[in-house]
Amino acid sequence: MSQTILAPSILAADFANLKKDIEMVNNSEADWFHLDVMDGVFVPNISFGMPVIEAISRHATKPLDVHLMIVQPERYIKDFALLGTNILTVHYEASTHLHRTLQAIKAEGMQAGVALNPHTNISVLKDTIQDIDLICLMSVNPGFGGQSFIENTYEKVKELKQLISEKGASTKIEIDGGVTNKNAKQLVEAGADVLVAGSYVFGSKNPTDTIAGLAKLTQ
Ligand code: DX5
Ligand code: ZN
């Protein structure tokens, strides 16, 4: 088992003390910052956008994994590249010309990710998987932190792992939503490479220890 990438979701951080939470992640065993951008159209919630990410980017010492929950994400690829995004993930359900969007993300020097809603079958990515650096399987319906993990995700991870190996691709599998110490190990055993955790980390008494606990469980 290779080392699992841990990506705390800043959506659950204290926005009035963002610098403190960024430094906590910088000094923890976490690997990436997961940043959720919501537009109130693709999902029924609005989170934060460019100015906040710009501020985070000035303090973060680890890669920025930006998850766009917005319609027509292709409109903002250049902007997110300029903000220092390392991995830019768009939703399959929000992308009419996904192949073109993936090429445009890579042309800006970022890794290209695609997120799938819980109801979307992984077979829709069969023809693009070679071009995708990361597939984010939503294990809750996107839009809010703190929701319960959907159990069917384990099955989906296994199926996706199989598809990746059949196609000889090197795509990473990321799991987003409801990740805790109860499901982390089983997700990694099923084939997950990246775990996003928001409320489990920031809602805990000692987020640094919580991250260390997840790291220990999944190495
Ligand atoms: C949900 C977001 C998630 C969210 C995860 O729409 O994409 O990244 O922040 O939060 P938890 O870990 O609390 O489910
Ligand atoms: Zn997310």
UniProtKB/TrEMBL annotation:
The organism's taxonomic lineage, starting at the top: Bacteria, Pseudomonadati, Bacteroidota, Flavobacteriia, Flavobacteriales
Stated name of the protein: Ribulose-phosphate 3-epimerase
Cofactor: Co(2+); a divalent metal cation; Fe(2+); Zn(2+)
Positions annotated to bind a divalent metal cation: 34, 36, 67, 176
HAMAP family: RPE
Residues of the active site: 36 (proton acceptor), 176 (proton donor)
Natural source organism: Marixanthomonas ophiurae
Binding residue positions for substrate: 9, 67, 143-146, 176-178, 198-199
Assigned GO CC terms: cytoplasm
